[in-house]
Amino acid sequence: MKRKRMLSFAAVVAGFALYFSLNEPNTAYAMHIMEGFLPVGWAVFWWVLFLPFFLMGLRSLKRLTKEQPETKLLLGLAGAFAFVLSALKIPSVTGSSSHPTGTGLGAVLFGPLAMTVLGSFVLLFQAVLLAHGGLTTLGANAFSMAVVGPFVAYSVYRLTVRSTGKQRLAVFLAAALADMATYVVTSLQLALAFPAASGGVLASFAKFAGIFAVTQIPLAISEGLLTVLVWNWLMVYNRQELNTLQSIKRGA
């Protein structure tokens, strides 16, 4: 057990080291909607939509840590994984930037509600420490990345495991499709706030989605593969904790 905890801690430290070594301050337009970019009405709307999921997530996390306190290290790992991946802003050929989300792993491990809380804190720290995103737009960013992404990941994972029995395939699809779902929702959020003069919301959505499609599809595939690698590592060194989490979710 001590060895497993040391390995989990080392993974978290390695994740932060990877972030600080690869990520540089960047003023390009990032996929986290930046501070003040949304009209006030839409910013409030997404906050109102997001908050119920966050409150339910707090209850889910409280129950989980009370019943299985040994999973706290895995929670830290899932949070660090999401922080590192979503903070890596990769330049796009369109003059903007894209990034992975990292929420699929936590959703598969702990369920979508728990990952809603972890993802929200990831976005909060990035907004405060890295100027990546914003506080007024936190509700919108959290709804797309910390609500929709995890729910898509968890649903895809469960459906794939039940239909195929292939766990690694399920993990890959969960992470990749959670990434894509986040960007689809963000494009919709921007389209609703800024409909095109000609074509309205649909035209605007096509424009925003197209801006990121070139880089986001390969990023989603890469995130899926990386998440499978991390999952394989966890199966080797944290199998007991994974089995416990699976048992909890089956009994929920």
From TrEMBL:
InterPro entries in UniProt = CbiM, CbiM/NikMN
Q: Name one GO biological process term.
A: cobalamin biosynthetic process
Q: Which residues cross the membrane?
A: 40-61, 73-90, 110-131, 138-157, 169-196, 208-234
Protein family according to the UniProt entry: Belongs to the CbiM family.
- List localization entries: Cell inner membrane; Cell membrane
Offer a single GO CC term for the protein.
ATP-binding cassette (ABC) transporter complex
This protein's record includes keyword Membrane: yes
- Chaperone as a keyword of this entry, yes or no, is no
Bilayer topology reads: Multi-pass membrane protein
User: What gene is this protein a product of?
Assistant: cbiM
| One Pfam family recorded for the sequence | CbiM
Specify the protein name.
Cobalt transport protein CbiM
- Kindly state which keywords UniProt assigns to this record, in alphabetical order: Cell membrane, Cobalamin biosynthesis, Cobalt, Cobalt transport, Ion transport, Membrane, Signal, Transmembrane, Transmembrane helix, Transport
Q: What is the lineage of its organism?
A: Bacteria, Bacillati, Bacillota, Bacilli, Bacillales
* Biological or metabolic pathway of the protein: Cofactor biosynthesis; adenosylcobalamin biosynthesis
Q: What does this protein do?
A: Part of the energy-coupling factor (ECF) transporter complex CbiMNOQ involved in cobalt import.
UniProt GO molecular function: cobalt ion transmembrane transporter activity
Task: Tell me how this protein assembles.
Answer: Forms an energy-coupling factor (ECF) transporter complex composed of an ATP-binding protein (A component, CbiO), a transmembrane protein (T component, CbiQ) and 2 possible substrate-capture proteins (S components, CbiM and CbiN) of unknown stoichimetry.
